[in-house]
Design brief:
By secondary structure, the chain is of the alpha/beta class. The protein has helices at residues 15-22, 40-55, 88-92, 107-111, 125-134, 147-158, 171-183, 185-221, 236-239, 242-245, 248-284, and strands at residues 27-31, 61-65, 77-79, 85-87, 99-102, 116-121, 138-140, 161-163. It is flat.
């Protein structure tokens, strides 16, 4: 298995982003891709959840890579669960001390920072690979394409993500899932496990390139190739018969031993039982 295949180099954090992330210990990074579009209602719920999460000390900072930050995409005010009214325009203008909105963020550098604890994403392939490689848990809001499939794999197979439904977004649901992803021990363990697995598999891209180069070089040595051409790369079980490849001979011997022992034990029990019965009959006579 090869991948994820990542770039050899990524742009570093900008000074502004570096200062913001270094000044916050529990950062939520948010990016939904360049083609992100949703309703004003959903935009409001997403932004409100960030304000509420900060107020409730679930997180202490948000970096939102938002291509379109027009005030027309948000309501003028947000009504928080405690009844407080919050103006959206100051937040969009980066006047909130704990929310930083930018049109572009060097995503890999943000995710790779130790203070970035969670990735709120659409679940695109590139974002998924970078999240796995950096060991960052994900809250996924799929919009279409392969994103739903990626999200399901991240949740069920990798165990590092939870999903949201774009047709039924709820602020309390977002908050509870952010809190769970940040504090659940299984999520933490799975994130570390997938991080190291992704890094090991990512290095195998060189092996794939080496194999292709080997094939091209070797095929140029001899125009007529025989069956032994790739013998070094064929797994041992492929060169064995069906019985040996599947260890059926070993299992067969084990079964014979087990049944033999069962037979011996059965005969011993029968012998002891018969001897006991004969002894009782002798005493009665």
């Amino acid at each position: 298995e090869i991948g994820p295949v990542l770039s050899e180099g990524y742009p570093p954090l900008t000074p502004e982003l570096s200062d913001f992330i270094n000044g916050h210990k529990r950062v939520l990074y948010v990016a939904f891709g360049t083609r992100f579009y949703t309703t004003i209602e959903n935009n409001n719920k997403i932004l409100q959840s960030f304000v509420e999460a900060i107020n409730n000390k679930i997180i202490d900072g948000v970096v939102w890579a938002l291509v379109e930050t027009s005030k027309d995409n948000f309501s003028p005010t947000l009504s928080l669960t405690d009844g407080t009214q919050v103006q959206t325009l100051p937040i969009l203008n980066n006047e909130h001390p704990h929310i930083h909105i930018t049109k572009f963020a060097p995503q890999f550098a943000v995710l790779n920072h130790t203070n970035t604890k969670l990735f709120f994403s659409h679940g695109g392939a590139g974002s998924t690979h970078e999240s796995l490689y950096t060991g960052t848990p994900m809250l996924v809001l799929p919009f279409g394409g392969d994103q739903m499939g990626n999200a399901q794999k991240l949740k069920k197979s990798a165990g590092i993500a939870l999903l949201l439904n774009k047709h039924a977004l709820d602020v309390n649901d977002i908050l509870s899932k952010i809190d769970f992803l940040l504090n659940d021990e299984h999520i933490k363990k799975n994130s570390k496990r997938m991080k190291y697995l992704a890094r090991i598999n990512s290095n195998r891209k060189y092996k794939a390139a080496d194999l292709i180069e080997y094939m091209l070089y070797s095929s140029g040595l001899d125009e007529y190739l025989d069956d032994d051409f790739l013998k070094e790369w064929i797994p041992a079980e492929s060169r064995m018969g069906f019985i040996k490849a599947n260890n059926l001979d070993v299992y067969g011997v084990l079964l014979i031993i087990i049944f033999t022992l069962i037979g011996i034990a059965f005969k011993l029990i029968k012998y002891i039982t018969n001897s006991s019965s004969d002894g009782k009959k002798s005493k009665q006579e």
